[in-house]
What does this fold into?
Amino acid sequence: MGTTVEPEESRRELLELTRRFERLLSAIDGHKRPLNRRESFHFQNFLELLKQEQWQEADAALRRAEQVAPIPAQFADLQATNIVVGTSELRTQLARIVAGD
It folds into this structure.
């Protein structure tokens, strides 16, 4: 048996990660506060990794968002990291990924 992920297992991983993502966004919305720069960066990284079906890396990105980990030095000074995405836009991106767009 190789490192190939079975479709059922892949779907299960996707569902677990998306539930955690939704819970985090709901908690942020519940506190009626915008995302900060670090959270936004890690959430966007999570979505990109999710789109590429890199489950372990996506899980790690989600943990970094939960912990509000610093943005890696190689990205910290980039202008793009100053763009903070809202929770509704992140949900829209997630819906597109799940739908396979």
